[in-house]
């Protein structure tokens, strides 16, 4: 089976991530699912699942700070929304004084996945992002050239 077929097959299945109480206690867990490493985060009463490697250049999001509803990548400080994988940045319009930064979006960049709860278990469906070139999440075996 090719890598694309593996990813597609994994996306059709539910994958056990861990026990709910353990993830709540640890706040985050990384689990290999198919060919992806998925980061599941417990934040303010909700579970989120995103690829563990940052879309920008592969930073380890499991080490990122969680602020409001975003994960801040520890490498270049990009902010990624936990629910949608949207990349956010602050911009300043130099023609407006006093200068005031405002939040802007680069669009959805990071792969996010669906989290489901079953009794005391936390599970995840991988979302099938095949064909979406903006979905730059890195496969765990990707290497820089
Ligand atoms: S690798 Fe994450 S912001 Fe650059």
List descriptors.
about 140 residues, mainly beta, Rieske Iron-sulfur Protein, 6-stranded antiparallel β-sheet, 5-stranded antiparallel β-sheet, 2 helices, globular, disordered C terminus, binds FE2/S2 (inorganic) cluster
Q: How many β strands by DSSP?
A: 11
The class by helix and strand makeup works out as mainly beta
Bound molecules: FE2/S2 (inorganic) cluster
CATH architecture of the domain at 3-63 and 107-125: 3-layer Sandwich
**Average pLDDT rating:** 84
Residue runs with pLDDT of under 50 for 5 or more positions: 133-145
Strand percentage: 35-45%
Largest beta-sheet characterization: 6 strands, antiparallel
**Estimated radius of gyration:** 16 Å
CATH homologous superfamily of the domain at 3-63 and 107-125 - what is it? Rieske [2Fe-2S] iron-sulphur domain
- Alpha carbon gap, first and last residue: 25 Å
CATH topology of the domain at 3-63 and 107-125: Rieske Iron-sulfur Protein
